[in-house]
Amino acid sequence: MAANRKTMGELVARIGTKDASDFGTVNCILADVKGSTTIAPMGVPLVWVSANSAYEPYIAQAIPTTGGVPDQSPVCVVIGDSAYVGSNKADVTLTSTAQKLSVLYRGDASIKESGIVWSGSSSAPNKAAFRVALEKQGISIQDSATSAATSII
Amino acid sequence: MSEVIIKALVPTSADYHQLETLHTEVDFRTTVKPLLLSALFNPKTNYELTNSFTYDTMARTYQLPETKQYTETGPAVNFDVQNQKSFIISSAGLQGSFTPQDMANQRQAGTLTFKDQVYYQSMIADKLDSAWDLDLELSFAKILSDDTNRLTNTKGTSYNYFTTIEGVTRKAYFDAITTGTSYSTNASGKFDIVFATQADVVAYMNDMKDILYAEAAKAGISGGMVVAICGTNWFNKRLKAEKQEGLARSLRGAKDFVSEVVPQVNYGGINYNTFTGAADDITYIKYGAGIISATDLIAADDCKLTLVGGTSNFSVNYAPAMRMSTVNQRALPMYRWGTMDEVAGFRQLTESNRLVLLEKPSTVIHLTSST
């Protein structure tokens, strides 16, 4: 009754091969994350909340100009738990106490739109604003290819 | 504990200290692939050196002699005009990738074996290969539906083959042919046969066949059998006419469709209902299939009449990939590149630059049944 947990390849389409040998240090980092929901640590969009000095799951917050990673990137995407980039072994319950999660915060990288776990409360304009912020950080978002849904009659 | 038992038993997801048996059978669901059109049409293939191609066209016209005085020489014939068509081939691509993290700690379905590179590469290859097969089928269907090439977005050049090649709209073309007859086309250039009131369906279809033969002869398409690729509703209406229900005499046809099953033909592992009209010798095939959700490849009320098996009226034209090792080289039907990086993982790119062209658009006759 349990589907396999989302792996990294379901979120990441491509990581710049020039930086590949640095992958994990160049594109990703452990960041402080707070919140009040339980998430699977793969594909959740995060935004910096300066009042809390942590990233929190993005819903519709205004995108700030600063952040908690070395280049002050205001948004990022969860790409694993604290163990390693790509590790998604169990759900993580976010609290007001910061927890370390692996995040993808800058390019050169492409991620799949289908891999992003949007909040149900995020509107299309909210998602668009987040996408713009990610693109500014060098992370392009690939829309899903059209699904084949074949029929005979 | 033997290895066999280890492989058969796994801790339950609810209680790690309990065991349950893992079946090796996997309930594997795959996608049915309707590929009738790809199987029926046997297109010519051209492998280009460039991403566009051109060809010259000529139409031979004839004029008639005039009565004259013995001392005159008669009027002169005109020269035939030579013209040119050119087409740009669009590019299409699809890719798949996986990282070491996708394999880490993951087991393959039905086994206690780790997911490995073979697992992911075969999955990606299967998905990519199937996608290209389905794309080709969609390309044929798109042309049959509205005479245009298949583009999935605004990238690439769109053509209406009928107006580009024949010079006029489908409607204008066929209305000119049927001037003075009782046949005319609807706004889309389709012959609309109203089965409920059509007194003689066979005569109608025979006349359509005559138009097709004339167009084929004009276009130099020889041989082949006349095939009607039918949407579900159109097929069922034509079959009803073939049944000759209420017939008050011995059936003269080879098959009594009132009491006998409709024959089937198998293309690519899928059976399609088909019958050959006893009096029109047209092979009708029901093709109600769809590839993109809720979109029939052939609209339910439509039917496409054409010739298959002889000279093909389709061609597939391939352009070379614009990459260092392939640019300006003879095109290949499919390109695949794989890159493996110790850290970033594996990435497979596929690309096919092809233009499916209906070279003789008038040799596909569109029929419909609006009521």
Note down, in words, how this protein is organized.
The complex is a heterodimer of chains A (153) and B (371). With 153 residues, chain A is mostly beta strands. Chain A is 8% helix and 28% strand. Chain A is globular, with a radius of gyration of 15 Å. The model of chain A has no long low-confidence stretch (mean pLDDT 91). Chain B has 371 residues and is of the alpha+beta class. In chain B, strands 7-17-12-8-11-10-9 form a 7-stranded mixed beta sheet. In chain B, 24% of the residues lie in helices and 24% in strands. The chains are: A mainly beta (153), B alpha+beta (371).
List the helices and strands and how they pair.
The complex is a heterodimer of chains A (153) and B (371).
Chain A: E1 12-15, E2 28-33, E3 38-39, E4 45-49, E5 54-57, E6 75-80, E7 92-93, E8 99-104, E9 109-112, H1 124-136, E10 139-142
Chain B: H1 3-8, E1 9-11, E2 19-21, H2 36-40, E3 44-47, E4 52-58, E5 82-88, E6 92-98, H3 100-103, H4 117-146, H5 161-166, H6 170-177, E7 191-192, H7 201-219, E8 225-230, H8 232-243, E9 264-267, E10 270-276, E11 283-286, E12 302-308, E13 314-318, E14 335-341, E15 345-352, E16 354-358, E17 365-368
Parallel strand pairs in B: 3-13, 7-17, 8-11
Antiparallel strand pairs in B: 1-2, 4-5, 6-15, 8-12, 9-10, 10-11, 12-17, 13-16, 14-15
List keywords for this structure.
heterodimer, A: 153 residues, mainly beta, five-stranded antiparallel β-sheet, three-stranded mixed β-sheet, globular, B: 371 residues, alpha+beta, seven-stranded mixed β-sheet, 8 helices, 24% helix
Order of helices and strands of chain A: EEEEEEEEEHE
**Total beta-strand segments of chain B:** 17
Overall geometric form of chain A? globular
In whole angstroms, the N-to-C terminal distance of chain B is: 71 Å
Strand order of the largest sheet of chain B: 7-17-12-8-11-10-9
Number of strands of chain A: 10
Query: Strand arrangement, largest sheet of chain A?
Result: 2-8-6-4-5
By secondary-structure content and strand pairing, the structural class of chain B works out as alpha+beta
Q: Order of helices and strands of chain B, N to C?
A: HEEHEEEEHHHHEHEHEEEEEEEEE
**Biggest pleated-sheet summary of chain A:** 5 strands, antiparallel
- Helix fraction of chain A, binned, reads under 10%
Radius of gyration of chain A: 15 Å
What's the average pLDDT of chain A? Answer: 91
As an assembly, this protein is heterodimer
Structural class of chain A: mainly beta
> Largest interface, by Cβ-Cβ below 8 angstroms: which chains and how many residues each?
A-B, 32 and 37 residues
Number of helices of chain B: 8
The largest β sheet of chain B comes out as: 7 strands, mixed
Strand percentage of chain B lies at: 15-25%
| Beta content of chain A | 25-35%
What does the radius of gyration of chain B come to?
28 Å
